[in-house]
Design the sequence.
């Protein structure tokens, strides 16, 4: 049994129950039928006042004026094509939507049309609210984007502006160190070395700030050439050996299998090693162990930097790669001299190479930072 | 050896002067690109150290103009901006070298010495 057949015999109840207004008129636009909803809306009218009356007398005159519904009905009778709907605004902020359908009797011409009217005030109001909210949201987003761009712009300008004074200071330090400004005593030499290492630290911070603003504005460019990851690792380990030596840490390098050369930005990959190893040295106790393992996998080179240091809490495993994250977030307990940019920059560089970076770690048991660099 | 240093920061000019005079150079200064063009024509320096971001006439345009007048001019651009693509732009403009601030004094002096011999 077809679905519609099971309700044959109930058409009347169904039509009467429909919460829209339904009016059927003939070719002369005389009302043949109006459903219960119509009477509910027009309390003053009884069926005997409505049936046989012209449509223009049973619905408000301004409605006819505004919609030219009479013309549209004539059009439907003439063409047999349904009028697929239009919106109508009532005074007092009410909104209606109406449609006109021809009712054919067999193959003969159209003798009646049915008019559906729906109160869409609430819907329209919601739609308007939604549109308003959307506009507000869009404005807020634009403002936020503008602020963000201003912030990136500021960081970029500030780091550039800092370069000249740093260069001036650095130049004089070097001139002192080179003896170009006369001979220094042992004490002066020692203090100049302190200034020198602090200036170097400041240069790195400025570079980190610049890289962060580049990452944010997606201006971090990768200049690829053929690179050997193990050579980069050796170079960085060598450069950092003084730092790890101070803490008497045992640093080792393990190469598993012959490594393929890959296409990458040598200077940037050096930076990744530098940032990860500086962290490993910093967060591993004196006499601790740090091991760098480089593996040749089928599709990529995988680098693991394993330490037995203080470790990273599970809840922070993804947060540590966000910029300005420095441990537990409290500025009083955070490590000094860090802006929490190193890992964010490392992540940016690895991802710009289409690689992945993550950490496996447990508090107190050490950390393993892993990154991959695709072979192609 | 005669050097013309072009930078809009007076402290930087002073530092250049101290570095270069200690290295035995004769130093001339210009505070922007326009001044650099005039000083270059007057002094005929062996080498120019050129900043990029300067008022009136920037370092890249000044480099182009100097090279137009003297295709053998030896110009080292010293930039506070390390933007990628900028180095290429400077070399295309006719600069012999591109150095990013902060530089190593020793390396800068080595570059100057080897460039003057070319």
Sequence:
């Amino acid at each position: 049994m077809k679905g519609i057949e099971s309700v044959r015999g109930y058409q009347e109840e169904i039509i009467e129950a429909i919460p829209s207004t339904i009016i059927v008129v003939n070719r002369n636009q005389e009302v043949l039928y109006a459903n219960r909803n119509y009477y509910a809306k027009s309390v003053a009218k009884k069926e005997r006042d409505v049936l046989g009356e012209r449509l223009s007398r049973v619905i408000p005159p301004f409605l006819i004026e505004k919609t030219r519904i009479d013309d549209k009905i004539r059009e439907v009778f003439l063409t047999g094509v349904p009028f697929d709907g239009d919106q109508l605004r009532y005074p007092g902020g009410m909104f209606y939507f109406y449609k006109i359908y021809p009712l054919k009797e067999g193959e003969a011409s159209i003798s009646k049309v049915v008019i559906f009217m729906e109160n869409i005030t609430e819907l329209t109001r919601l739609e308007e609210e939604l549109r308003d909210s959307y506009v507000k949201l869009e404005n807020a987003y634009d403002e936020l984007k503008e602020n963000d761009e201003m912030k990136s712009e500021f960081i970029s300008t500030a780091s550039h502006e800092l370069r000249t004074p740093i260069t001036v200071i650095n130049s004089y330090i070097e001139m002192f160190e080179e003896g170009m400004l006369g001979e220094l005593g042992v004490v002066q030499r020692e203090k100049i070395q302190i200034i020198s290492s602090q200036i170097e630290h400041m240069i790195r911070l400025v570079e980190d700030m610049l890289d962060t603003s580049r990452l944010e504005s997606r201006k971090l460019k990768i200049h690829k050439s053929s690179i050997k990851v193990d050579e980069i690792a050796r170079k960085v380990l060598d450069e950092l050996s003084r730092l790890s030596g101070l803490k008497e840490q045992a640093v080792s390098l393990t190469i598993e299998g012959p490594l393929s050369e890959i296409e990458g930005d040598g200077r940037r990959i050096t930076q990744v090693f530098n940032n990860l190893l500086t962290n490993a040295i910093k967060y591993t106790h004196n006499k601790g162990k740090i091991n760098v393992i480089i593996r040749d996998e089928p599709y990529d080179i995988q680098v693991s930097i394993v330490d037995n240091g203080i470790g990273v809490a599970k809840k922070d495993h993804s947060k540590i790669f966000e910029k300005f994250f420095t441990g537990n977030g409290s500025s009083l307990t955070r490590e000094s001299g860090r802006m929490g940019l190193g890992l964010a920059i490392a992540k940016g560089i690895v991802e710009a190479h289409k690689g992945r970076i993550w950490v496996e770690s447990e508090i107190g048991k050490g950390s393993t930072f892993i990154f991959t660099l695709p072979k192609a | 050896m005669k050097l013309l240093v072009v930078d809009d920061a007076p402290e930087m000019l002073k530092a250049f002067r101290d570095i270069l005079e200690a290295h035995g150079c004769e130093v001339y200064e210009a505070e922007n690109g326009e001044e650099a063009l005039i000083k270059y024509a007057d002094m005929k320096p062996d080498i120019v150290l050129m900043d990029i971001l300067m008022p009136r006439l920037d370092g890249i345009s000044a480099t182009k103009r100097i090279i137009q007048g003297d295709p053998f001019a030896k110009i080292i651009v010293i930039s506070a901006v390390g933007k990628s693509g900028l180095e290429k732009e400077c070399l295309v403009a006719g600069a012999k070298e591109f150095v990013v601030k902060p530089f190593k004094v020793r390396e800068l002096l080595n570059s100057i010495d080897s460039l003057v011999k070319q």
